[in-house]
Automatic annotation (TrEMBL):
Its main location: endoplasmic reticulum. It comes from the Bacteria. This is Carboxypeptidase Q. Homodimer. The monomeric form is inactive while the homodimer is active. Keywords: Carboxypeptidase, Endoplasmic reticulum, Glycoprotein, Golgi apparatus, Hydrolase, Lysosome, Metal-binding, Metalloprotease, Protease, Secreted, Signal, Zinc, Zymogen. Transmembrane segments: none annotated. Residues 253-437 form the Peptidase M28 domain. Pfam families: Peptidase_M28. One of its GO terms (cellular component) is lysosome. Residues 1-21 form the signal peptide. InterPro entries: CPQ (IPR039866), Peptidase_M28 (IPR007484).
Length: 456
């Protein structure tokens, strides 16, 4: 009996030693990350050396070379590209004008990604203003035929991106609903929280509807148009040269810190940006966060129990080509992915940690919450969604942790020409690196098996 108690004490003591050693490593990681300007430097180089890097463009090819070099400089192993086919679409010249009795008044606008263009004569038509998808769906084709739908919905500012979630359907489904009802074009107030004249783009889905030109107006342009419509009606002219080109063979980039086993902890961000923006926040910040996090782990000079893999995905913005290609190429080893985390909400501080570990990883969950508490990160709710690039993995049952960043200012610049380096939250970027690095190490070096979730 006494021997058993002594053994138990020894075992506890051993566990304690392991726990204390882990604590020290995690604390060291966090302190180093908080003092390290590497992530800021990395995103600065991405913007200055590469700039816009849209799917299928030369800019994206430059970004690929940049990513290889950055991963090798950071000491990653097995740095390589994996093939992906990307769509290629160009917006061409864009002109939207409010017709007046005198000179037409230009309105700042950008095509939504994938929009069809107009013919050379353009479209000139009366505007029908609606405030929601429900209002649009309530209109009869007779009320819309040949007219331009003006979707005038203002996006709400929120720290958790819920304002974007609410407004997003008008961009995703509005053009299809308008096309189905015979409208000539779709013009929406952009999904932006900034009262400025820089329009924000984004993807849309024509579904099975007739394809009509679809564009977003800056908030100031939308204010101007709304005022004229309310004062008695408005007509607008649209000229758009947008067109699709053939698909392009390309790649996404993978780099690792090899562990003692072939189980994988995956950190993801997307290398591509929209064509009209340097993409400092979206997703230069995410690229910098996950790359800087793995670099901190490499610098520890230790081999974790599991491999930690950074994936810089291709074409998140315009069809998730990289996410789909990765899930297909790695279908046989999805069972060995024990965690996925994605960084794609800019550089704002992590406010809370969303929990996608499921019912059977209670000890790991408690440890994860405890690890990030000193960084000011609160325990978050359960979720199965940690980002669109890792969605195929998490849907298949890969556990996830979701650092939820402060997105209060993110949608001032998101998908617009204003997404530049001067909007980065530099202290926030460092805190993110500390969060991602310490969580990745905690999970990669976790001594117990990590349970999968049921597939969705
Ligand atoms: Zn993004």
């Amino acid at each position: 009996m006494r021997a058993r108690r002594a053994l138990l004490a020894l075992a506890l003591c051993g566990l304690m030693t392991v726990a204390l050693a882990a604590d020290k490593t995690l604390d060291t990681l966090q302190q180093r990350a908080l003092q390290d300007a590497y992530a800021e430097g990395l995103v600065t180089r991405l913007i200055n050396e590469v700039g816009p890097r849209f799917s299928g463009s030369e800019g994206y090819e430059r970004a690929l070379i940049w990513a290889f070099r950055s991963m090798e400089d950071a000491g990653f192993k097995n740095v390589h590209g994996e093939p992906v086919i990307q769509p290629r679409w160009v917006r061409g010249a864009t002109r939207v004008e409010l017709l007046t009795d005198n000179e037409p008044l230009p309105l700042s606008a950008v095509a939504l990604g994938g929009s069809v263009g107009t013919d050379a004569r353009g479209i000139e038509a009366e505007v029908v203003r609606v405030g929601s998808l429900e209002e649009l769906r309530a209109l009869k084709p007779a009320q819309l035929r040949g007219r331009i739908v003006f979707m005038d919905l203002s996006m709400r500012r929120s720290s958790d991106a819920s304002g974007y979630g609410e407004a997003y359907p008008v961009r995703a489904h509005g053009p299809a609903e308008a096309g189905r009802r015979g409208a000539a074009a779709y013009l929406m107030r952009n999904l932006s929280t900034a009262a400025d004249d820089a329009p924000h783009t984004g993807s849309t889905d024509y579904e099975d509807a007739p394809r009509i030109p679809a564009l977003a107006l800056s908030n100031l342009a939308a204010d101007r148009l709304a005022a004229v419509v309310k004062a008695g009606g408005a007509s607008v002219a649209i000229h758009l040269d947008a067109r699709e080109l053939g698909a392009v063979n390309s790649a996404y980039v993978v780099g690792e810190l090899p562990g003692k086993s072939d189980e994988i902890v995956l950190l993801g961000a997307h290398l591509d940006s929209w064509d009209i923006t340097p993409g400092a926040e979206d997703d230069g910040a995410g690229v910098a966060i996950v790359t800087a996090a793995l670099r901190q782990l490499v610098k520890l000079g230790k081999k974790p129990r599991r491999t930690i893999r950074v994936v810089l995905y291709a074409n998140e913005e315009f069809g998730l080509s990289g996410a789909k290609a990765y899930a297909e190429a790695h279908a046989g080893e999805l069972g060995r992915h024990v965690l996925a985390m994605e960084a794609d909400l800019g550089s704002g501080r992590v406010l809370k940690l969303m929990d996608g570990l499921g019912e059977n990883n209670a000890a790991l969950r408690a440890a994860a919450f405890a690890v990030v508490a000193p960084l000011g990160v609160a325990p978050g709710e359960a979720t199965r969604h940690g980002g669109s690039d890792i969605a195929p993995l998490t849907a298949a049952g890969v556990p996830l942790l979701g650092p939820r960043q402060d997105a209060s200012r993110y949608f001032d610049v998101h998908h617009s020409a204003n997404d530049t380096l001067d909007h980065l939250d530099r202290a926030g970027l460092r805190q993110n690196v500390a969060v991602y690095a310490s969580l990745a190490w905690l999970v990669a070096d976790w001594p117990q098996p990590i349970a999968r979730l049921p597939a969705e």
